[in-house]
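Design a sequence for this backbone.
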């Protein structure tokens, strides 16, 4: 069986920047006794991604990288608890608790720069998941997120037409 197309998707910032506060960063290294710091992790990320991409490209496999979906600033359960405990307009309250588009882009900046060095397709779903300079955690009726950085079924369904098109399905 020949693999013709590989799609790589991850929470890239987990290895390069962590979350919006610089925490929740999982250091990676090029070797078992390597340094455990952000600079070394970024270097290992660049090396590992480059090695992976070249191996697939040398094998004649088409590659697509999926940019990380926006991480949120707060767990949806906490966000909705705050929204419905208050008297403010629920839509406005959700918007205020959702991550801003520019802040989302800043967190993705390093990975995006690394991606741009390679002849590879990159798909960014920000145009679907973000609006009016923010990336909503959901609506008053439903959350788009399971936790701060994983889409819920509802959030994932928003991407379904684009994913279907990407993998060559009908739609």
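Sequence:
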């Amino acid at each position: 069986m020949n693999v013709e197309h590989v799609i790589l998707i991850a929470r890239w910032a987990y290895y390069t920047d962590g979350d919006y506060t610089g925490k929740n960063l999982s250091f990676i290294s090029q070797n078992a006794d390597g340094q455990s710091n952000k600079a070394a992790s970024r270097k290992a990320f660049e090396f590992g991604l480059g090695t992976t991409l070249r191996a697939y490209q040398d094998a004649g496999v088409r590659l697509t990288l999926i940019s990380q979906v926006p991480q949120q600033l707060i767990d949806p359960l906490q966000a909705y608890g705050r929204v419905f405990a208050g008297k403010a307009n629920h839509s406005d309250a959700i918007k205020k608790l959702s991550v801003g588009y520019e802040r989302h882009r800043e967190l993705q900046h390093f990975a995006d720069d690394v991606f741009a060095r390679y002849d590879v397709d990159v798909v960014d779903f920000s145009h679907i998941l973000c609006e009016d300079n923010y990336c909503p955690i959901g609506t008053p009726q439903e959350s788009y997120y399971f936790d701060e950085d994983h889409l819920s079924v509802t959030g994932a369904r928003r991407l379904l037409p684009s994913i279907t098109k990407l993998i060559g399905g009908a739609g």
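The beta strands are 5-9, 62-66, 99-100, 121-123, 134-135, 145-147, 150-151.
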